[in-house]
Amino acid sequence: MVDPQRLIAPEIAAAYDVSPHTVRASWSQHPDWPAPVGKRGRYKEYAAEDVAAFVRDHIERQAVTLEPRRLYTAQQLEAAGIGVTAGTIRADRTRGRWPEPDDTENGVNRWLGATATKALQGRRGYRRGRTD
């Protein structure tokens, strides 16, 4: 009988709507990925609550409230915990996926909290598309 408190990679992928490759090649390579608690067939089993804690702490973006009228640099936005790195902000800006800065005084790009919040709301999720 399968223990519902223990999950293997395909079950984790289904539960979190990502591909099994994401679980194997990305998540399980993270230093904070939980240790296996057993084995089922050729798959390692993981405690469901440990996997849920990992996803909560490292995968899901937590809601961050930025001050709407404050100006933030890309590094300050990253430090605020928006779930996007400063490098991603710069790369997305060159690809037209992040708004132009609201202020460029002294050559420093800065965005109002309201601008960054709107940009974050418009970002697509990186979850596998459902077909049901």
Structure characterization notes:
The chain is an alpha+beta fold and 132 residues long. The protein folds into 2 domains: 6-59, Multidrug-efflux Transporter Regulator, Chain: A, Domain 2, CATH 1.10.1660; 71-121. It has helices spanning 9-16, 20-25, 48-59, 74-79, 86-94, 113-121, and strands spanning 6-7, 38-40, 43-47, 71-72, 111-112. It has a 3-stranded antiparallel β-sheet with strand order 1-3-2. The radius of gyration is 19 Å and the shape is elongated. The chain starts with 5 loop residues before the first strand and ends in an 11-residue tail after the last helix. Mean pLDDT is 88; it is low at 126-132.
- CATH topology (level 3) name of the largest domain: Multidrug-efflux Transporter Regulator, Chain: A, Domain 2
Biggest pleated sheet: 3 strands, antiparallel
Q: How far do the termini sit from each other?
A: 28 Å
Order of helices and strands: EHHEEHEHHEH
What is the level 1 CATH name of the largest domain?
Mainly Alpha
The fraction of residues assigned to DSSP E strands is 5-15%
Ranges where pLDDT stays below 50 over 5 or more residues in a row are 126-132
Principal-axes geometry comes out as elongated
Q: Total strand count, please?
A: 5
Return the domain count: 2
Q: Calculate the mean pLDDT score and round it.
A: 88
